[in-house]
Amino acid sequence: MTEGEAVDLLRMLMQNAFATALPTLLTAVGVGVTISLIQSVTSLQDQSLTFVPKLMAVGFVMVIMAPQVINKITSFAVLMIENMPAMAP
Asked: Would you say 72 and 16 are in contact if contact means Cβ atoms under 8 Å apart?
């Protein structure tokens, strides 16, 4: 395996990790900012007001995105297993 192939492998790995984590992270950030804005407007400062909606929204997105994430991870794993003989020195 050359340095270029190793860099391509790491690039693909990072792209897959980013693509699988992005929907969950964006949901958490979006809900957190929205709840923070609502709290600042209404002057409510209860910690459970940010935790519970964020937990529910992230859980919902994870359930909805699970098939796509599993397919992406599985296809990457199959690609890596198929390329194992070429990776050996």
From this structure: yes
Q: Output the tens digit of pLDDT for each of the chain's 89 residues.
A: 788 988 999 999 999 999 999 999 999 999 999 998 998 898 887 777 888 899 999 999 999 999 999 999 999 999 999 988 888 87
What are the distances in angstroms from CA 29 to CA 4, 35, 48, 75?
35, 10, 16, 28
Tell me if 31 sits within 8 A of 52, measured CB to CB.
Answer: no
> Domain tally for the chain?
1
Domain of 28 in residue numbering reads as 3-87
Handedness of CA 30, 31, 35, 36 (dihedral sign): negative
Rounded Cα–Cα distance for residues 54 and 49 (Å): 9
Query: Taking every pair of C-alpha atoms in the chain, what is the biggest distance, in angstroms?
Result: 63
CA triple 16-20-70, angle to 5 deg: 95
